[in-house]
């Protein structure tokens, strides 16, 4: 594509992400996206083929940006730098992801699977780098983490209100949410491993050396 075509392609994609997040994917039309950008509906179709093709392009571009940023953070980038970058770059993604998941269907399934793949890739980078531990059941851990993340995404308004703001990217909300989640993921919730040990015993699971240990065991 020429430079002008690439620019139009990006402008249409960015407008679609904004409108899909604001109005919902099903309620947004190709004509509305074209009007948002100031181009003809025919040009949108020329670049993306259909509304579904445009949505797929939005998903792919968003996941590429998230993958590049999060893997960079896990391979050694300063946490504060990553958080500030996320604040500037990822804000439009939250309502878009929430709308896509809440509407369900095949596209929601694909997006969920893509987010699981992103999280799996984070472990592939973070475990060798020493920033993440290797879980006993990687697939279960990946699925749970994505579910947690989507909970905050779809409940953004409620989470932000409880933390003193209007969106997840308000400075106080971002600070409190980032610190709380990082604290939880770093130190865990339970004071020791008794709950985990009891669950393993109840399910008949014995996984020695899986890296799931008490990070702060009580003194003998």
TrEMBL record:
<dbReference type="Pfam" id="PF00440">
    <property type="entry name" value="TetR_N"/>
</dbReference>
<dbReference type="InterPro" id="IPR041484">
    <property type="entry name" value="TetR_C_25"/>
</dbReference>
<dbReference type="GO" id="GO:0000976">
    <property type="term" value="F:transcription cis-regulatory region binding"/>
</dbReference>
<dbReference type="GO" id="GO:0003700">
    <property type="term" value="F:DNA-binding transcription factor activity"/>
</dbReference>
<keyword id="KW-0238">DNA-binding</keyword>
<dbReference type="InterPro" id="IPR050109">
    <property type="entry name" value="HTH-type_TetR-like_transc_reg"/>
</dbReference>
<dbReference type="InterPro" id="IPR001647">
    <property type="entry name" value="HTH_TetR"/>
</dbReference>
<protein>
    <submittedName>
        <fullName>Uncharacterized protein</fullName>
    </submittedName>
</protein>
<dbReference type="InterPro" id="IPR009057">
    <property type="entry name" value="Homeodomain-like_sf"/>
</dbReference>
<dbReference type="Pfam" id="PF17933">
    <property type="entry name" value="TetR_C_25"/>
</dbReference>
């Amino acid at each position: 594509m020429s430079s002008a075509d690439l620019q139009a392609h990006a402008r249409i994609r960015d407008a679609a992400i904004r409108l899909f997040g604001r109005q919902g994917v099903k309620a947004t039309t190709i004509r509305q996206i074209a009007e948002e950008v100031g181009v003809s509906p025919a040009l949108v179709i020329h670049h993306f083929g259909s509304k579904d093709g445009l949505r797929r392009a939005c998903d792919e571009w968003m996941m590429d940006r998230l993958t590049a940023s999060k893997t960079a953070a896990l391979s050694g980038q300063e946490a504060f730098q990553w958080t500030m970058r996320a604040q500037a770059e990822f804000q439009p993604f939250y309502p878009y992801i929430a709308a896509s998941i809440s509407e369900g269907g095949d596209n929601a399934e694909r997006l969920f699977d893509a987010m699981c793949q992103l999280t799996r890739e984070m472990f592939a980078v973070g475990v060798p780098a020493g920033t993440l531990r290797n879980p006993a059941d990687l697939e279960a851990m990946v699925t749970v983490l994505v579910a947690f993340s989507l909970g905050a995404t779809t409940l953004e308004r409620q989470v932000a209100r409880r933390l003193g703001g209007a969106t997840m990217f308000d400075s106080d909300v971002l600070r409190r949410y980032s610190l709380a989640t990082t604290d939880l993921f770093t130190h865990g919730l339970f004071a020791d491993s008794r709950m985990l040990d009891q669950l393993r015993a109840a399910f008949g699971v014995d996984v020695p050396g899986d890296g799931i240990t008490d990070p702060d065991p009580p003194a003998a």
